[in-house]
Amino acid sequence: MSFHLPAAAAFAGAIALCPLVLRVLRRHHVVDIPDARSSHSEPTPRGGGAAVAIAALSAGALGRGAWHLRAVLLLAATAMCVVGIVEDIRGIPVGSRFTLHLTIGVLSAPLLLAGAGLDPIAAGVAAVVGVAWLVAFVNAFNFMDGVNGISAVEAIVAGLFYAWLGRGRYPILVDGGLVVAGAAAGFLPFNFPRARMFLGDAGSYLLGAWLAILAVVALRYRLGPVAAVAPLALY
User: What is the Cα–Cα distance from 150 to 20, expressed in whole angstroms?
Assistant: First the structure.
């Protein structure tokens, strides 16, 4: 693909912001302490996803076409990220966190499906499935965050795949895919091979929501369930 300004901006923003965010996390002792389930053995700053979020959301605003779908993508990802930031800093009870995720899903899914040409029953079923999918994938993505490099690589691979899937027809898939891949690539050197910091809930919620919504957009454009979900099958 030729030079893509939003993707380049996302990459440059993430790689520039990560050292600043890392410094803040260390100063305020926002640290992931390893336990029996952890894959890391040393206390590691968490919340590095704040840099990814700022880079991706800023660059995502430069995208093209399908403005209402792009707005839902950016707003839902932002809302998930805010929940994650609060969770990283002070913690949120599991029940409250689930309620917030569910609320974001309930508000987002119908908007993603608006104008898709579905009859009322099909639209209702699709909305319920969409809510369940968004909440489930965000939490699956968050669960995997403690493995060095895996979440950033997943976002890069999936983002590039969606960009390829939408080439020449659907700018939101091209822009959304390249932006998330660019932001994740900017974060990767800080998380692999040695994890200087983790995405934390802030970043994993944002990336999980972003990719889950791109899958819904691909389904909305009738690109096929296998193509829509395949890049996310690992998680």
Answer: 22
The CA distances from residue 99 to 102, 113, 136, 145, in Å, are 5, 22, 13, 21
Give me the sign of the Cα torsion angle 77, 130, 208, 61: negative
CA distances from 88 to 47, 84, 126, 181 (A): 6, 6, 32, 23
- How do residues 198-222 score in pLDDT, each as one tens digit? 999 999 999 999 999 999 999 999 9
**Sequence-distant (≥ 6) Cβ neighbours of residue 234 within 8 angstroms:** 154
Model confidence over 130-153: pLDDT tens digits?
A: 999 999 999 999 988 878 899 999
Cβ density class 109-137: b for 16+ within 10 Å, e for less: bebbbeeeeeeeeebeebbeebbebbbeb
Residue type, 47: G
CB atoms within 10 A of CB 235: 18
CB 146 within 8 A of CB 204: no
Distance CA 176, CA 144 (A): 22
